[in-house]
Amino acid sequence: EQFGLHICCCLGLLTPEQAAQLKAAGVDRINHNLNTSRRFYPEICSTHSYDDRLATLRACRDAGLELCSGLIVGMGESHEDLVEVALELRALNVHSTPVNFLHAIEGTPLGQTHALNPRECLRALCLFRLSNPRAELRISGGREVNLRSLQAMGLYAANSMFVSDYLTTKGQPAEDDFQMVRDLGFEIVMTHNDTASAGIPGADELLEAAAAE
């Protein structure tokens, strides 16, 4: 509270007791992705169940934590699977939905998965916007290699996007993302804490310009 930070944690499976402890410690939001639909989930994960993930999200919600939960598009699921997970996220009343697009890496189990095209990615973003219009929709990992030249169009459906590098792959330079947002005529909303911690080139200048307006 002293520094105006909004704390979001990604900690795996949680019990109701653990969720309550996190809330008491000052955590605001939990990220725990469903990743795909219940039907397709066994094709992706064998170490824990879909119900385990739902139980974690419900425990966090009941503890008063905000929910950030999304998916990875392009793992071999059907259109019906995307609709199913969109409705599940709506039923959970999530605050934020990160939509990742599979960045297939040669030599991994999904390395030979059918590649997405930019139009498929845009349709997926529209689905998640229309199914849960109050949630913050975040364009996340894999956007550069899947949306390609249509990245900017994704921001007509989404509220935000992840900037710079991801957990295991490189992203495009942050200054390119800022320029894309400027070219669209959208306003960039940030706090000083966001920019100071991210080290984003040009961010301080953007804040100064916004303050001057």
Automatic annotation (TrEMBL):
GO molecular function: 2 iron, 2 sulfur cluster binding; 4 iron, 4 sulfur cluster binding; biotin synthase activity; metal ion binding
Domain Radical SAM core, residue spans: 1-143
Source organism of the structure: Schlesneria paludicola
SMART domains: BATS, Elp3
Catalysed transformations (reactions): (4R,5S)-dethiobiotin + (sulfur carrier)-SH + 2 reduced [2Fe-2S]-[ferredoxin] + 2 S-adenosyl-L-methionine = (sulfur carrier)-H + biotin + 2 5'-deoxyadenosine + 2 L-methionine + 2 oxidized [2Fe-2S]-[ferredoxin]
PANTHER family: BIOTIN SYNTHASE, BIOTIN SYNTHASE, MITOCHONDRIAL
Pathway(s) served: Cofactor biosynthesis; biotin biosynthesis; biotin from 7,8-diaminononanoate: step 2/2
Ranges in coiled-coil conformation: none
EC number of the protein: 2.8.1.6
Pfam families xref list: BATS (PF06968), Radical_SAM (PF04055)
Tree of life domain: Bacteria
Gene3D superfamilies in UniProt: Aldolase class I
Keywords: 2Fe-2S, 4Fe-4S, Biotin biosynthesis, Iron, Iron-sulfur, Metal-binding, S-adenosyl-L-methionine, Transferase
Name of this chain's protein: biotin synthase
Catalytic EC class: transferase
